[in-house]
Design goal:
The structure is a single chain. By secondary structure, the chain is α/β, with parallel strands linked by helices. Helices cover 55% and strands 7% of the residues. It has two domains: 2-188, Rossmann fold; 210-259 and 298-326, no CATH class. It is built from 16 helices and six strands. Helix 11 packs across helix 16 (308-326).
């Protein structure tokens, strides 16, 4: 079984809660590799055309009388990537051929969000990690044109899985008020009663606020153009991100979440994804997309400091964070 995200649908929470509940999962016939890196190694091996680690997991699960459960949100993008083994094939096709030879069917579970909410949330995640320094509008334009790290045309991502008789798909709408996502995932894979599932005492992955986004945009561009070595350094970026997240909590910036969507941008998203969403929703749920995801009416957040004093304050924070990342603060 594969839990494939998508990104920004509580995947980290789900993974931590599954990790904590190993006895419960075993009791219900599920084998969940405990370490995050084990799941990512499977993804890496699939990309390399090496299915041996998948075979070892299947063998281990068979010995224990369990079904394996793998969770990696990046799989929502990876499965549609071109195969290294067959011309014109995909990595999903490679995996399905391997499983067919083993006499195993595939269960795929994905939580899906409406693109406006998803892309706004995904942008804040990527920008605070200094993944790029582009504006939200440019990020949307790039995603709508070529997908990339935030591809979210669900027909394109999951059409092959839906068309395969070898795949049992469960697509779960990700919306406020729909219940605990970990329990919904387990119910989708056949665990009817989650009463014994232990809770997870973990702070939510809060949005850092528009101030943090504004700072991250400038830091990313400055690193890229003035400090190319640091721009290529995961350690430097991690130091900045961790310090920025701590500061956002201390300052209470989450009270003003970043919201980059405007009416014109919403219209562009609807033009790009609306028809595809409706076809997908009718095929999967038997209704229109907007019956499940009403059209949002977001209130755009400030895109820049509101006055000179606030600008000076945020620029000073950015300078301090840059020094932290470069290891110059001491």
């Amino acid at each position: 079984m594969l839990h494939v995200g998508i990104h920004k649908t509580a995947s980290t929470y789900i993974q931590h809660r599954l990790k904590r509940n190993q006895p419960f999962l075993r009791q219900h016939g599920l084998l969940y590799p405990k370490k995050r890196r084990d799941h990512l190694r499977l993804v890496k091996a699939l990309r390399q055309g090496n299915l041996r680690p998948w075979g070892k997991l299947l063998d281990r699960a068979a010995r224990k009388g369990c079904r394996p459960l793998v969770s990696a949100e990046i799989l929502s993008l990876v499965l549609a990537e071109p195969s290294r083994c067959t011309s014109g094939g995909t990595l999903l096709a490679d995996l399905l051929l391997f499983l067919e030879r083993r006499g195993v069917a595939l269960e795929l579970v994905a939580f899906l969000r409406d693109q406006p909410a998803y892309l706004n949330s995904r942008y804040t995640q990527l920008i605070k990690r200094l993944y790029f320094g582009v504006s939200f509008e440019r990020y949307l334009a790039r995603t709508m044109r070529s997908g990339g790290e935030s591809a979210c045309d669900f027909e394109e991502l999951f059409g092959e899985a839906l068309a395969s008789a070898q795949v049992r798909c469960s697509f779960l709408p990700f919306r406020a008020g729909d219940g605990d996502p970990c329990e919904r995932l387990l119910q989708a894979v056949g665990v009817a009663d989650c009463t014994g599932l232990q809770p997870l005492d973990q702070r939510a992955n809060a949005q850092p606020g528009w101030q943090a986004v504004w700072i991250a945009q400038r830091l990313a561009r400055r690193l890229q153009h003035q400090h190319p070595k640091a721009w290529r350094s995961p350690v430097c970026k991690a130091r900045i991100r961790e310090a920025l997240e701590r500061l956002a909590l201390e300052q209470g910036w989450q009270a003003e979440p970043y919201q980059g969507l405007s009416a014109p941008l919403l219209n562009r998203l609807e033009e790009r994804y609306g028809a595809s969403n409706d076809r997908f929703a009718q095929r999967v749920w038997g209704c229109s997309w907007r019956e499940l995801f009403p059209l949002p009416l977001p209130q755009p957040s400030p895109q820049a400091p509101r006055d000179r004093a606030e600008r000076r304050e945020l620029l000073a924070v950015a300078q301090w964070l840059l020094a932290e990342g470069l290891g110059e603060s001491a």
